[in-house]
Amino acid sequence: MSEKEDEKGKRGGHHTELYIEVPPTCLPIVYSPEYNITFMGLEKLHPFDAGKWGKVIHFLKEDQFITDDTIVAAREATEEDLLVVHTKRYLSKLKTHVLEGSREWSLVVATITEIPPVLFLPNFLVQRKVLRPLRTQTGGTIMAGKLAMDRGWAINVGGGFHHCSSDKGGGFCAYADITLAIKFLFERVEGVCRATIIDLDAHQGNGHERDFLEDRRVYIMDVYNRYIYPGDGYAKRAIKRKVELDWGTEDMEYLQKVELHVEGALNEVLPDIIIYNAGTDILDGDPLGGLAISPQGIVKRDEIVFRAARRRGLPILMVTSGGYQKKTARIIADSILNLHQQGLIEGGAAEGPETSLMPLLMSKSLSSGATFNAI
């Protein structure tokens, strides 16, 4: 590690491997094969496609948008990284078992992932096969936060665990990656004082809402199906712009509301960065989302958000969050390709940071540094 990288890693109170120098030949797209959860078929017991992140990358490679050399390799968030937000008590719960006689039960992780057989797995396997992938995706979101400030945009192909707060997980969310990415930016990147979360997953983002309930630096817009999990009335107090949808909401109404409220949110408060939770569980037929948005509607939705950010010269970090049909990976890839075709993100090493949003960001002095619930 270079002296410059080491200095970056130490800002904010502890040394981290997540704020690294990224070669200009890389696109600000973060991913690791470690994201994908595969273990004895247990992942198939939850409707979540636990391999969708790898499929997105496969499609983007197939369409020659990225190569292995142009992806930023995500690193696993360490316990010190996680303690920036999470309590020691909560992290300890993820490591420990409930003992009954000679058996050790992984109760907390089984509850969070909603995969009951996880209850009976030894904790070292739970750590390696379930929690490590989620920690790596969490590290990817934190890395993408810095990349968004450096390049004007970044996409973590995973992440978006918006039901997890500092001391409680749920809905397949074990780590609060959105909260962590924002806290890292506040602590380590000079000039980042305000963040706006635009949460367009079908579910209410109660995790980051609980974390930022009393924090005026964070503006939260949340658009979700009012009738589904989590229905967290306490967390809703943190939402500055709340859009509650009915069952079966379709493209026209949805896109009108998204555009109206994204523009309204960014006109109300101009943040230093946007964190965009781009769940695809709004797709028609999703078993958990209960909405009826077409694939084309999802692509258009993402374009609306990125266009609003670009028009204002705002850095944007996108995470992929929920989505419970096999076709969602193709839709996410199509949306990223559309953002490139629309000139809203750059593609290919030749374009690099020189044609990114950097001219618009020069004012920022970056430091060196059973019933399933769902994402």
Blueprint (SSEs and pairs):
Blueprint: H1 3-10, E1 29-31, H2 52-62, E2 72-73, H3 79-82, H4 88-95, E3 98-100, E4 103-105, H5 107-113, H6 123-151, E5 153-156, H7 177-188, E6 195-199, H8 206-211, E7 218-225, H9 233-236, E8 241-245, H10 251-268, E9 273-277, H11 295-312, E10 316-319, H12 328-341
Parallel strand pairs: 1-2, 1-5, 5-10, 6-7, 6-9, 7-8, 9-10
Antiparallel strand pairs: 3-4
Helix pairs in contact: 2-12, 6-7, 10-11, 11-12
Notes on the protein architecture:
The chain is of the alpha/beta class. It has a single domain, classed as 3-Layer(aba) Sandwich (Arginase, Chain A). The protein contains twelve helices and ten strands. A hairpin with a 2-residue loop joins β3 (98-100) and β4 (103-105).
Descriptive terms for the model:
alpha/beta; 8-stranded parallel sheet; nucleus; single chain; globular; 375 residues; Arginase, Chain A
